[in-house]
Amino acid sequence: MVDPEQERSSSSPSVEIEQVARRKGGRPGEEIEVVLTDASSFFVAMRVWEEAPFHDGDTIDEERWESILARSRLFQVRSRAMSLLARSEHSRFLLRRKLLQRELDAAAVDRVLDELEESGALCDQRFAIGWVRSRLRSHPEGRAHLAGGLRDRGVDGALAERAIDIALNELSVTMADSARACAQRLARRRALSVDEMRDRLHRRGFATAIARRVAEEFGEAGTDPEERYDRHE
């Protein structure tokens, strides 16, 4: 008499391994390419394969095979995400977009991003503060533009405003100081009237009152761009 468990096992769906190929370079993490007898092929993370190796000609039940692929997708996403974060801070939105552009599994991407946020490796606030700090140093602009730039990068509005305040405090500057730095750069390019300077500053995202005040300071300081802002440096 046939054991019911054996009968169910023998009739359960399975996949047949045609070939386990050599490691493939140029993809996130170390991987092997697995070719099935139906000519389909898949990339499996080397670490996942090493935990329970399979070889040419092996037959694997479908449940185990799906588990191998799922774990490999997570490993691939995690490896790529950590590689990108090692180069620079990212917001969750930016990192997700880059990972999906690499045609990685969306469900695996979201799960890995959740894990990275929980561990602190991915942090929108840390990204936002660093981005604002860099922007204020290299390309001074007003609060409206800074907040808009962060929103474009997926940072929540309230978090963006908080990040701007923190970055300003860390740099010991005010929005007026940033406007003066912006005005100084503008003045070096060409001569501007008070009204022109005010309009330029306003277009750079500075509040109307700040743009007007700094433009008036600009007018009072004379026309020599080298002397114009000495008192504010």
Polypeptide structure, described:
It is rod-shaped, with a radius of gyration of 28 Å. It has 233 residues and is of the alpha+beta class. Strands 3-2-1-4 form a four-stranded antiparallel β-sheet. The longest helix has 26 residues, at 62-87. It has three domains: 12-119, Arc Repressor Mutant, subunit A; 124-171; 175-232. A hairpin with a 7-residue loop joins strand 1 (14-23) and strand 2 (31-36). It is built from eleven helices and four strands, in the order H-E-E-E-H-E-H-H-H-H-H-H-H-H-H. The chain is 61% helix and 10% strand. The chain has helices spanning 4-11, 46-51, 62-87, 92-101, 106-119, 124-138, 143-152, 157-171, 175-189, 194-203, 208-220; strands spanning 14-23, 31-36, 41-45, 59-61.
What labels would you give this structure?
about 230 residues; alpha+beta; Arc Repressor Mutant, subunit A; 3 domains; 11 helices; 4 strands; about 60% helix; disordered C terminus
Q: Order of strands in the sheet with the most strands?
A: 3-2-1-4
- The percent range for helix content is 55-70%
The total of beta strands comes to: 4
> Unreliable runs, pLDDT <50, ≥5 residues?
4-10, 223-233
| H/E series | HEEEHEHHHHHHHHH
Number of alpha- plus pi-helical segments: 11
Mean pLDDT: 87
What's the CATH architecture name of the largest domain?
Orthogonal Bundle
Kindly report how far apart the N and C termini lie.
93 Å
CATH topology term of the largest domain: Arc Repressor Mutant, subunit A
Strand content: 5-15%
By CATH reckoning, the class of the largest domain would read Mainly Alpha
- Morphology: rod-shaped
Radius of gyration from CA coordinates: 28 Å
Major sheet description: 4 strands, antiparallel
Question: Any idea how many domains?
Answer: 3
Any idea what the CATH superfamily of the largest domain is called? Answer: Winged helix-like DNA-binding domain superfamily/Winged helix DNA-binding domain
Query: Helix- and strand-based class?
Result: alpha+beta
